[in-house]
Amino acid sequence: MKITDIKFGMLRVPLKTPFKTALRTVNQVEDIVITMHTDSGHVGYGEAPATAVITGDTHGSIIEAIHKFIAPRVIGQEIANLNHITQLIQGALEKNSSAKAAVEIAVYDLFGQLYDAPLYKMLGGGDPVITTDITISVDYIDKMVADSIAAVDRGFESLKIKVGKDIGVDIERVKAIYAAVEGRALLRLDANQGWTAKQAVYAIQTLEDSGVRLELVEQPVKAQDLDGMRYVTERVHTPIMADESVFGPTEVIELIRMRAADIINIKLMKTGGISNAIRIADIAAMHGIECMIGCMLETSISVAAAAHVAVAKSNVITKVDLDGPSLCAFDPVDGGVTFNESEITVSNAPGLGIREIRGLEPIDL
Ligand code: MG
Fold first, then answer.
1. How open is the CA angle 136-48-225, to the nearest 5 degrees?
2. 27 and 99 share one domain
3. Residue 42 C-alpha to ligand 1 middle, in angstroms?
4. In the annotation, is 100 catalytic?
């Protein structure tokens, strides 16, 4: 099975409600989808969103990186040589982690198809059912409380609360939500870099002292501020998770060396795909550090790939934040991973098991 071509498309899916964080507001998913074609007729699928404020990737940069730098290296390669292909992808150019992720996802999809096995089995197997949390966007307190109650009523047992706007209001937001859902759902806070280290310590200690129990607080400080992250981690009981601060294995090693955080959030769009996500999971496991697997605003193509990784690495990926598909107004993908509210089920279809993508608009280059 040889790679013969990579084609591009744009996939647009409206969100059920606007996605609001300390960094941005988004109303629809708008992702680049690639189809990887082979001489055997098999097709692999990959996807990448433009998350300029986090990874620096834009639609234009994703297309250019794949079309001009990655595709020329991988076209003609045998899918059976998976490790060689992932090296070619990672070495094609610096950064551009989302573009690399899209291509790796398609390659791993084909790798599973080549051996007629679902991807998670190729990665070591596992229990094919996982449970995700859901994001509660940052908003007025009443709206966040109502959204949280609605999510719990839909069966979600973990809520990821977006904060990081105004420290005083953030504390009130969390207290109100905690009171409304106490005992029915675990709360994870994501500050998306919105606080300083001192503000974070103040906010988390205030919440701890008032009896609010949080499962974790994610990325309280700026991405580059590892010292600040360590400052917070050392001073609070609540586990601290690094997201924007860590992209690849090198940063994870540094973070662990510094003891700057307790948990690591793995996202394929930061790691540059599956090969480095697996490396990070293995490094973390060696050090007894738990991981979450997360996603950007992605549909059930790239999130399916993340689900397969989560299943295969469930020994260390103990927290799942793959709510991209459940934030979408509809699922454009007919495929092997079923996203039903909090429950994600991976089927035994080969690779990612994607049969059809509805509404994909071709991009001609
Ligand atoms: Mg985050």
1. 60
2. yes
3. 35
4. no
Q: Are 233 and 218 in contact (CB under 8 A)?
A: no
Q: Is 267 a catalytic residue?
A: yes
* Domain of 8, in residue numbers: 3-116+358-363
pLDDT digits (tens, 9 = 90+) for 118-161: 999 999 999 999 999 999 999 999 999 999 999 999 999 999 99
Task: Determine which one of 20, 100, 160, 162 is catalytic.
Answer: 162
Q: Determine the pLDDT at residue 292.
A: 98
Cα(338) to ligand 1 centroid in Å equals 23
| Residues 158 and 236 reside in one and the same domain | yes
- Catalytic member of 20, 160, 267, 319: 267
The size of the chain, in residues, is 365
Query: Are 111 and 150 in the same domain?
Result: no
Q: How many domains does the chain have?
A: 2
Domain with 300 in it: what CATH number?
A: 3.20.20.120
State if pTM tops 0.70.
yes
Q: Which residues of 130-166 are buried (b: 16+ CB within 10 A; e: fewer)?
A: bebbbbbbbbeeeebbebbbebbeeebebbbbbbbbe
User: Are 136 and 175 contained in the same domain?
Assistant: yes
